[in-house]
Amino acid sequence: MPAISNLGATTRTSPLWSPDKVTVIFVLGGPGAGKGTQCAKIVADYGFKHLSAGDLLREEQDRPGSEFGEMIKTYIKEGTIVPMEVTIQLLENAMKASMEGGNEKGLFLIDGTFSMFQHDPT
């Protein structure tokens, strides 16, 4: 299993962006609650970049050469929560790519189920 203790998401001591440059809204709810539907409306009306934690995890597990692909597959297969550090690192990577790709407003909607963002102390 890849080391997650040395990810940027776990070792950073200061934010990547100031609140002046980035706005993040978390859209949380159970499966099928309508998070994606509401996010699509907000994207259309206000120009946010929609990042789905679940979509990022599924994409990463299928990405050739992924450091976390097999680990994510195992967690999903076993029905357990992928470590928070991995999910946060994938979100951070997607936000960086969006900012570099022209998201000058820095507006982000991050959607995920409640369980994805719960801390697992084990």
Shape: globular
- Rg (C-alpha, Å): 15 Å
By helix and strand content, what is the structural category? alpha/beta
* Strands, count: 3
Proportion of residues in β-strands: 5-15%
Query: Between the first and last Cα atoms, what is the distance in angstroms?
Result: 16 Å
Q: Order of strands side by side in the largest beta sheet?
A: 1-3-2
Largest sheet: 3 strands, parallel
Assign a percent range to the helix content: 40-55%
Mean pLDDT: 86
Give me the oligomer status: single chain
Helix segment count?
A: 5
Give the low-pLDDT segments.
none
Order of helices and strands: HEHEHHHE
Q: What does the model show?
A:
- It is built from five helices and three strands; from the N terminus they run αβαβαααβ.
- The model has no long low-confidence stretch (mean pLDDT 86).
- The chain is an alpha/beta fold and 122 residues long.
- It has helices spanning 8-11, 35-46, 53-62, 69-78, 84-100; strands at 23-28, 49-52, 107-112.
- A three-stranded parallel sheet has the order 1-3-2, sandwiched between helices.
- The longest helix is centred in the C-terminal third of the chain and has 17 residues, at 84-100.
Which features does this protein show?
single chain, 122 residues, alpha/beta, 3-stranded parallel β-sheet, 5 helices, 3 strands, 43% helix, 13% strand, globular
